[in-house]
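Q: What changes when FNR is included in the input?
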Amino acid sequence: SIYNVGILVGSLRKNSFNKKIAEYIVDQEESKFRYSLIDIGDLPLYNQDFDDEGTPPASYTRFRQEINALDAVLFITAEYNRSVPAVLKNAIDVGSRPYGKNSWDGKPAAVISSSIGALGGFGANHHLRQSLVFVNLLTMQQPEAYIGDIESSIGSDGKIESGETKDFLHSFKQAFEQWAEQFITNKGQD
Ligand code: FNR
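A: The predicted holo structure follows.
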């Protein structure tokens, strides 16, 4: 069977370094884990009235269906002012509602943060984990991934070029797949 992993990127920037990390992971040879990017840029800021009045935006419905269909979730995020970019926090909030229909519930997850700075988005990484605890995503604790000075890992073609960064991403991906597989309940289905 194939396991579907959704990647949520915490940056909307066209040339986002975090998105380049995500694209690198998507481009790796397929194992039984298939990675795809989930769009979060079209989700209006969460307003509970949409759900209370039974008129959620089409993008909410699309997003919730996409999350429901995933076997696992990988967050790859920038750090804004030592915390989670609002666009990613908003996506987590949208996916957690309406009340009683938390799309994240019980799925395995992992977090990668990266920054042009030296600290590698540590603040965003850990603030994000606080929300993931509450929505009951089963987030891998080790290895952690704080990728600093990310700009220097990118080649002139706009892709990840640094061998060290590639090696790290490979080992992280392998650990994540082992972690995730423990919790995926549809094992053995085709
Ligand atoms: C930043 N940046 C940043 N970097 C960091 O290491 N810690 C921080 O707290 C912040 N804060 C911050 C706030 C805002 C509003 C912006 C726009 C940027 C810099 C950030 O690391 C840099 O812009 C990255 O390039 C963002 O990631 P993407 O967009 O390349 O994925």
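Observations recorded in class: The pocket of FNR is lined by residues 11, 13, 16-18, 78-82, 115-117, 119, 121 (CB under 6 Å).
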